[in-house]
């Protein structure tokens, strides 16, 4: 599979500088006007601060075409605009290649690194090299349990075990008895934690099904075959929004009555929640993950601020059902939820 390892830089133009002769000379009205001006500048793609133009690199384990990471990037880019940051993005779904991208960011002498730890053992040395070089690191999305041990400032994302437990509770409420948990990326510790979390709270039985997430036809045929072989499965849980619709197709072809539920949210999932095709989704707010990661690095560089107190900064889980999906329609359609 072709790897996408290019750096993507955002050209941020302009800077807004609001000055005041003295604090005493700044009225509340003037402060409000300054704040309004900063917001307007950010909306127009201009920096809302006049701090140094630092460079931050985000390196993720995303494969090509994964829409989830488009949402993460959207949040990160918006924060980068606001904070006057030169933002670089790269990704590779092979852990060793992802580690090399982290090494490349260190060699570029970036001012901060944001990295996912889906396969933490492969990233440990690269993160340590960044720390040794004096580059602050924030982990995002995956690797909450390893983040602190690796020396990261903070972890921003969803606790995958807790998210899985929330799914188990929701399946109980719906009276389900047997769930199929579809893992689309073998070796991803977060995916294992999700399915294990489901099994921890679900009163029924959970079976894991490993599929090749880079080949949707294979995913569909594997789920279809499983549903045909075991008609007692009454819930299918996918671990990513793009796989939910594929599972629905597999269910239809198999003649199964199982409910399809999923982790993560996008416009397609929201639409299928509203029309009843899907039962529920678990939102971890990827836009917030990207935005908060960039913003927190900026805060650390600017004011030595750190969030979390050594604990993950949680962005989920939030169970989204038919009613909630309708309320989020504007956001999913614009690609920020």
Main CATH class of the largest domain: Alpha Beta
**What would CATH call the homologous superfamily of the largest domain?**
Response regulator
H-E string: EHEHEHEHEHEHEHEHEHEHEHEEHH
CATH topological fold name of the largest domain: Rossmann fold
The averaged pLDDT comes out at 88
Bin the helical content: 40-55%
Uncertain segments are 1-30, 36-43
Number of domains: 2
Our Rg estimate from Cα atoms comes to: 21 Å
**Alpha-beta classification:** alpha/beta
Under the CATH scheme, the architecture of the largest domain is 3-Layer(aba) Sandwich
Query: Largest beta sheet: what is the strand line-up?
Result: 1-3-2-4-5-6-12
Major beta sheet, specifics?
7 strands, mixed
Shape: globular
Question: How many extended strands?
Answer: 13
Termini distance? Answer: 28 Å
List the total number of helices.
13
Beta-strand proportion: 15-25%
Question: Which labels suit this protein?
Answer:
signal, Rossmann fold, globular, seven-stranded mixed beta sheet, 337 residues, disordered N terminus, alpha/beta, six-stranded mixed beta sheet, Peripla_BP_I, Sugar ABC transporter substrate-binding protein
């Amino acid at each position: 599979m072709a790897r996408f390892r290019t750096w993507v830089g955002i050209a941020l133009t302009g800077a807004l500088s609001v000055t005041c002769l003295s604090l005493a000379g700044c009225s509340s009205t003037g402060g409000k006007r300054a704040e309004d001006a900063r917001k307007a500048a950010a909306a127009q793609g201009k920096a809302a601060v006049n701090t140094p133009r630092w460079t931050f690199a985000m390196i993720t384990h995303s494969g090509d075409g994964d829409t989830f990471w488009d949402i993460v990037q959207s949040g990160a880019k918006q924060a980068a605009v606001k904070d006057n940051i030169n933002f670089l993005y790269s990704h590779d779904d092979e852990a060793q290649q992802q580690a090399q991208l982290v090494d490349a960011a260190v060699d570029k002498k970036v001012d901060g690194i944001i990295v996912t730890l889906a396969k933490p053992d492969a990233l440990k040395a690269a993160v340590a090299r960044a720390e040794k070089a004096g580059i602050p690191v924030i982990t995002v999305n995956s690797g909450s349990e390893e983040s602190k041990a690796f020396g990261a400032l903070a972890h921003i994302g969803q606790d995958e075990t807790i998210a899985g437990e929330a799914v188990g509770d929701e399946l109980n409420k719906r009276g389900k008895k047997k769930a199929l948990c579809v893992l689309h990326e073998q070796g991803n510790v977060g995916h294992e934690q999700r399915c294990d979390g489901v099994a921890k709270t679900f009163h029924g039985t959970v079976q894991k099904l490993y599929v090749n997430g880079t080949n949707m036809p294979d995913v569909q045929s594997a789920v279809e075959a499983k549903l045909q072989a075991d008609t007692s499965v009454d819930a299918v849980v996918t671990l990513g929004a793009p796989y939910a619709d594929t599972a629905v197709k597999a269910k239809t072809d198999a003649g199964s009555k199982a409910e399809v539920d999923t982790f993560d949210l996008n416009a397609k999932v929201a639409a299928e929640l509203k029309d009843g095709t899907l039962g529920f989704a678990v939102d971890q707010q990827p836009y917030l993950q990207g935005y908060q990661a960039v913003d927190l690095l900026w805060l650390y560089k600017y004011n030595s601020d750190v969030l979390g107190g050594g604990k993950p900064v949680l962005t989920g889980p939030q169970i989204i059902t038919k009613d909630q999906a309708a309320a989020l329609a504007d956001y999913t359609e614009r690609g920020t939820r």
